[in-house]
Structures are given as C-alpha cells and as structure tokens.
C-alpha cells in the first residue's frame, strides 16, 4: 500500500509557503488513487490565491507517482458548449478516454448528457482499472450547467476506483445555480475542501526572501504586506520591481527603491477588473481617484449617478473582495489595488478625474449627495470625450457603459453623442457584432455633426469601415479627414491620418504604397513614445512590412517602437507592443512567440483595426505550427464570435473561416475563407490559398497543391509581398518540382486576374466598375491594368480593345 510519506519523499522540497496542510491533503488523495480509491478535492480561494498553482502541484505529484493526468479548463464564452471542460480532459486527451466520435456526433442533444453520465463514466472506470487517473478541472465557475450537473454523478459513480478529482473554484465569481448546486452535492458526498487563505506576515516575508535572495528590510516588507497575503499580487509586485531594477541587497537584506506601482502589477489589476461588469469596472477606476476612504455619496457624485443606481455594482465589487465597507465608508481591499487601478488610466484622464474628485469631495458630504441633474459638481472629461478616451485606452466595457450613459442624457451635445456612437460602434466590432456596428456607423455618417471632434471621428469611422470590408468608403472618408486636417493646420490629426493610411494600405494588399507612406510620414524614432496612438500604428505597419518584405529596416524600426511602447501608460499600447514582439519572434523562435501571447485575449486592444484580423490569423498559424492547444482554443473562441452567419460582414466571415480552417485543419472552411476574403483582404486571401495548398500537399495531392500555391503567389506578387513570394517559390520547387515558366510578354504572360480585368476594361468598364464586378478595390484593378499594359506593350484602353479583338478575346 502506497503512503503519503513515500510520495512526499519522492518529490523535491516544495517552494510554497503556508500551504503545508493542503499539500498533505493532495498527497493523501494521490495515495488513495494509487490504492484504488476515489477522492474529490475542491480547491477554492480568491482570485490570485494560488488555485492554479495547487492544480500544478496536484499534477506534479500525480505524475511522479505514475498516475495519468487528465486536464480541462473552463473558459469564458464556453457556457453554451455542453461539457466543454470535461470533454477536453477526457476525449480531448491523448489517447482519448471515451469515444471522441460519439461526443462529436451527439452534439448538444439529451443523448450527450446520457452518454457523459453513463458511457464516459464507464470509460473512466475502464481506464482507471489499468492505471490510476487524476482529473484536474480548473476555474469551474465558468463551466456550463451540464458539466456541473454531471460532476456529482461521475464522482459518486467512480468513488470505488482509482480516480482523483481536483476541482478549482474562485471566490467572487458567481457561477450561478448550477455551480452552487453541484458544490452542495459534492460536499454531501464528502468532498474535501482545500481553502487557500491569505498568507500571513511571516509567510509573506519568506516569499520575498526566496524571490530576492535575502530577507526583506522593513520598507520592502511593508510594501509586500500591502498585497494583503495574496500570492499572485505579491509575486507580480516582486517581478515588476525586479523588471524595473528596483530590488537590491544591502547589508544582507533585500531593499526596494521608490517609484510608482510596477507596470506589471497594473496589468494584473486590469485583468482582474476585466472580470467585472462594465459598470463595476468604471466604478472601481473612478473610486481609485477618491481618498482612501470615501462615501457612496462621493462616488455617486463622481459618476453622476443616483445613489440607488450604485447598489448593484458596489455589491459586485464587495463580493469580489475588491472593496470593503467600514463605518459607513468604502475603501479598497488593499492599497496596491487602488494604486494600480489609478495607474491603469491614461495620464491625461487620470489628471482630469483627480481634478473632478477635488471638486466632488469639496461639495459632497456623506449626508447629501448632489442632485442627479447637477453637472457643475462633477466636470466630465474635457470636450465630452470620456467614453472615447476609455475606449482608446483599451477599456471597452467601461467605455461602452459611459457611452450608453451619454446617449441617454438629453443634455448631451453633438460632440458627446458623436463620440458615444463612435465608441459603441468600436465596441460592437470588437465583439464581432458587425450588424450593430454598421448601423451605428451609418447613423454617424447620416448625421451632420459639425463639432470640433468631427474630423477625428471621420478617421476612426474610416478605419472601422475598413474592418467591416468597405475599403472604398474608408478611403474616401479618410481622404476627407486628411483634407480637413490640412485646412485647419491640425498637425497631430494629419499624422494620425497618415499612419492610419499606411496601416490600411497593408490591409488592402498595397505593400509598396504602405512602405512609401511609412517612410514619408513616419515620426523620427527618437521622437515617438508616450501615449501617442500614432506610434502604435507606425509600429504595426513596420511589423507588417517586415513580415511581407523580409527587409531588416522595417523590422528594426518595429523592434524599437515595440520596446518603447512597453513602457507606456496605455495598456492597449503595451498589448500591441507584445503582439509585435511575438510576430517578429515567430519565424525563428515560435515557442517564444507563444510565451509572449500567453495571457493575450486575442481580441482588439483599443480601437479595432484590420490589423487585429491579421494578428488573429497570425495567432492561428502559430498555434497550428507548434500545436499549442491552449492558444488554439483561444483563437477558436475569438473566431467564433466573428462568425455571424449570413449577417456577418465579408471581412468578418472570411477571417473567421480562415482562422477556424487553420486551427481545425478544415479545407472546406479555407475555401470559404478564400471566397469571402477575395477583394477585401488580399493578403489573407493569398494566405488561405497557401494553406489549402499546404493541406493538399500533406494529403499527397501535389498537383492540386501547386495550383493553390500558384494562385497565392500571383496575389502576393500583385501585393508586393516579396518574402511571401520567395517562400512559396521555394515550396513549389521542393514539393511540386520546377514551376512552369510564364512568358514575360504577350497575352500568355497575363495572370488569370489580369485577363479578367482587361476583358472588362476593354469592354468599356471603368476601374471602379471592374472593381465592383471582380470584388476588388479600384487600386488593385489599376495595378492589374498597369501590369497588363506593360506585358502587352501598350499604353491606352483603345490599344487594349484592339489587341483583345485581334486575338479573339
């Protein structure tokens, strides 16, 4: 019989502090499974308390003991996917436990529920008869109701076989009635709870000593104790201090240099706030501007809400252990959280809110909140752009809440309403809601707003129209904004227009045009930085140029800009910097690229752009290349939100089909993607053709693969994507033999698309009419026509018509 002592002796000394009793319970569970007995352990704690680390310890101990580990994780957005974490752990394992075909074919029917409880239970019992199993399921607050209903039945039915269940739940996240009922049943069945309490002072000091290599001095310990015993917050604080070179050792004690909260900790807090509702997120950030202890009346004054309107968001933040109530006042659970929430806001917005807070605390007493209609007590962000600034900072939910409030305010002026509509359209696009976004943008375009912010809004509207696959309208609107900016002498807006134009040129497959714009309009690298969004656009454009041209100049420029953006205030800018670093690392170090994207939600960071769609496609290719299931699952979840059936915009539908085709190795989806992307995203169209060819080559169909690669190459050539052309030329040589040489002059030298263009133009069609017929942009038609003229040695449409007549075309 295996004992817990034998398991513990086989493992290295644990680096965990304050968890000895819990680790002992884990060892006992492992020993029980080895001896053929079932055991259920419920790991519970607040966010950052170490639940995932405990599951890691469970996995490590189980594998060291010779137990096979099955792992599943409940993810946001999977509530509509029956039994997702449970099936991921079982039929999704290698080799599978249970019949994957049955799970797929039964779908969401009642038969699947029967299969899970009966057939899957039998499969687990059969597998455990050969070797003990450990089933680890993480973050079950986010699991679907079917999973939670099945767990009590499965654990009870398998209590007499060697299966160890380790299930984690997070305090502060209400999973609904199904989760509460499942926990009640599991408790009744003698499941053991492993509650992760906050670290005590001596345990905090031990963690700091392990990390810094010396016991902390009083100042560092005082700072560390502001984490209030939360291991994740404490470690992120220490890692952030080390990254910023603020930790040292003096006279045998670890010391800290002064400064603001480390940016790394700010990012952790932003992620934690992201789990709240939009109203609660906004409340937390505004509350961070108030004194350490504040009244509900002061908070209501800052938010311009009635006190009664704050009941639900305040209760939510208290349940999440972010705010606590003491003696009629509210305060943050720990000061590090408050400081990080403040630092998560852009500098200009933070200063404006601080000024508002002074006015509110001067005018509002605990006994009397300001009247709802009074705006003088709280001055909003200058020019009515608070929602817009939150959106630009990447705070989509808080921005949407503010924008909806603005639109519901009868006193809001045109500028405020215009930016509110713009913000909501951007949030809709980020969520994949193309129909709603289109309606808002059309409303904006249909209104004759003449306020000072109208030119800036036109730039963003142009960008979003391009996101929706309306590049011609986008180009016209962007040109109008540029003309307005030049007329007004608005330097920042002129530069923003130029940088957007360069990025949108890449999305339209005009690499040469994008390179020319980047070189002609780029800010000097030694003058970029701060919170300027134009530097982010410049960075993205350079990264795309580096990928598609293979040139070192754009690559170096992108690296410099990414390095600087990592130190900016805006989380959205830092997110894009990390993405660019991942894209630049991927060709030589794909695993490093995966690491960089480890916590990226893959959704738009800040304003949605066509670059987000290209980035999602990159993430899909990366996940497929390294076979990273976690990244693939995240990619799949985002792509699914873009798929709106017949109502989705062509760009959304095409990108969704491409990404799902990549991660699911689905050729039919890739064909669908190619059809949808043709004309709206040329580079992604070519990538879809390339991937179809790759799939056909793996099936041994080299002739068909070569056809697809040639189609992709033709598009890459037209786009000016030299690196892609060279890559495919090498692949054609390697897999399909020498590519048949096309004549360089004459009708036979024309590509299929060039022939289609010249036939339409020779028949009297304008470039725009030909573009509509072929689902191309007028610029692309012009490029095809120019190349055709050169190959045919002509220089007019009349000559073209005559030549076509001569050859009987």
TrEMBL record:
For this protein, the record's InterPro entries field holds:
AAA_16, P-loop_NTPase, Sig_transdc_resp-reg_C-effctor, Tscrpt_reg_LuxR_C, WH-like_DNA-bd_sf
Q: Which GO terms describe its biological process?
A: regulation of DNA-templated transcription
Question: So which domain of life are we looking at?
Answer: Bacteria
> A Gene Ontology molecular-function term?
ATP binding
Q: Which Pfam families match?
A: AAA_16, GerE
Q: PANTHER family from the entry?
A: TESTICULAR SOLUBLE ADENYLYL CYCLASE, TRANSCRIPTIONAL ACTIVATOR DOMAIN
Put simply, this protein is called: Regulatory LuxR family protein
């Amino acid at each position: 019989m295996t004992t817990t002592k034998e398991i513990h002796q086989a493992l290295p000394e644990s680096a965990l502090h304050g968890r000895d009793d819990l680790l002992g319970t884990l060892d006992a569970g492992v020993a029980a499974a080895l001896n053929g007995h079932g055991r259920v352990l419920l790991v519970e704690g607040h966010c950052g308390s170490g639940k995932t680390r405990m599951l890691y310890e469970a996995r490590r101990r189980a594998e060291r003991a010779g137990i096979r580990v099955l792992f599943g994780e409940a993810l946001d957005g999977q509530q509509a996917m029956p039994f997702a974490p449970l099936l991921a752990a079982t039929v999704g394992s290698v080799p599978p436990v249970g019949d994957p075909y049955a799970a797929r074919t039964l779908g969401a029917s009642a038969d699947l529920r029967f299969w899970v409880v009966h057939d899957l239970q039998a499969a687990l019992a059969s597998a455990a008869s050969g070797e003990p199993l450990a089933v680890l399921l993480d973050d079950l607050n986010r699991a679907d109701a079917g999973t939670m209903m099945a767990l009590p039945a499965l654990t009870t039915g398998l209590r007499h076989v060697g299966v160890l269940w380790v299930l984690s739940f997070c305090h502060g996240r209400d999973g609904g009635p199904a989760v509460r009922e499942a926990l009640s049943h599991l408790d009744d069945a003698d499941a053991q709870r492993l509650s992760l309490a906050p670290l005590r002072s001596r345990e905090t000091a031990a963690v700091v000593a392990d990390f810094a290599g010396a016991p902390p001095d009083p100042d560092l310990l005082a700072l560390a104790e502001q984490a209030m015993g939360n291991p994740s917050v404490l470690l992120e604080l220490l890692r952030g201090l080390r990254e910023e070179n603020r930790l040292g050792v003096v006279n045998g004690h670890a010391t800290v240099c002064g400064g603001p909260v480390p940016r790394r900790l700010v990012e952790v807090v932003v992620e934690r706030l992201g789990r709240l509702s939009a109203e609660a997120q906004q409340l937390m950030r505004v509350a961070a501007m108030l004194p350490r202890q504040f009244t509900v009346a002061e908070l209501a004054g800052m938010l311009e809400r009635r006190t009664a309107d704050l009941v639900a968001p305040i209760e939510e933040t208290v349940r999440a252990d972010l705010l606590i109530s003491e003696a009629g006042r509210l305060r943050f659970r720990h000061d590090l959280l408050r400081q990080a929430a403040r630092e998560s806001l852009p500098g200009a917005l933070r200063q404006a809110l601080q000024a508002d807070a002074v006015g509110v605390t001067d005018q509002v007493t605990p006994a009397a909140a300001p009247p709802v209609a009074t705006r003088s007590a709280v001055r909003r962000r200058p020019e009515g752009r608070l929602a817009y600034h939150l959106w630009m900072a990447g705070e989509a939910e808080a921005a949407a809440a503010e924008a909806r409030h603005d639109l519901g305010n009868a006193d809001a002026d045109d500028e405020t309403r215009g930016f509110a509509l713009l913000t909501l359209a951007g949030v809709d696009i980020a969520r994949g809601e193309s129909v709603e976004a289109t309606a808002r943008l059309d409303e904006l375009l249909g209104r004759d707003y003449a306020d000072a912010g109208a030119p800036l809004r036109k730039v963003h509207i142009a960008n979003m129209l391009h996101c929706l696959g309306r590049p011609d309208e986008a180009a016209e609107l962007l040109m109008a904004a540029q003309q307005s900016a030049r007329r007004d002498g608005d330097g920042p807006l002129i530069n923003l227009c130029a940088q957007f134009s360069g990025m949108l040129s890449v999305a339209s497959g005009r690499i040469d045009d994008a390179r020319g714009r980047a070189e002609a309009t780029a800010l000097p690298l030694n003058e970029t930085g701060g919170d300027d969004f134009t530097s982010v656009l410049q960075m993205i454009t350079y990264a795309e140029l580096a990928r598609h041209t293979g040139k070192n100049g754009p690559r170096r420029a992108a690296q410099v800009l990414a390095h600087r953006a990592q130190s900016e205030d805006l989380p959205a800018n830092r997110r894009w910097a990390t993405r660019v670093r991942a894209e630049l690392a991927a060709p030589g170090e794909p695993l490093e690229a995966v690491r960089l994207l480890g916590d990226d939600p893959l959704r738009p960071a800040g304003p949605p752009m066509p670059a987000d769609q290209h980035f999602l496609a990159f993430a899909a290719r990366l996940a497929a290349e390294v076979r990273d299931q976690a990244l693939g699952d995240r990619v799949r979840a985002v792509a699914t939100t873009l798929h709106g059936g017949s109502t989705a915009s062509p760009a959304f539908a095409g990108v969704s089909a491409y990404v799902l085709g990549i991660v699911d190795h689905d050729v039919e989806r890739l064909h669908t993607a190619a059809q949808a992307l043709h004309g709206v995203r040329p580079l992604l169209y070519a990538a879809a053709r390339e991937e179809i060819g790759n799939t056909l080559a793996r099936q041994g169909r080299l002739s068909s693969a070569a056809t697809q690669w040639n189609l992709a190459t033709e598009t890459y050539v037209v786009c000016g994507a030299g690196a892609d052309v060279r890559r495919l030329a090498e692949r054609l040589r390697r897999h399909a033999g020498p590519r048949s040489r096309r004549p360089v002059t004459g009708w036979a030298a024309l590509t299929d698309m060039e022939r289609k263009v010249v036939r339409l133009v020779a028949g009297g069609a304008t470039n725009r009419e030909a573009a509509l017929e072929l689902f191309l942009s007028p610029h692309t038609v012009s490029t095809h026509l120019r190349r055709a003229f050169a190959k045919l040695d002509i220089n007019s449409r009349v000559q073209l018509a005559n030549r076509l007549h001569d050859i009987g075309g």
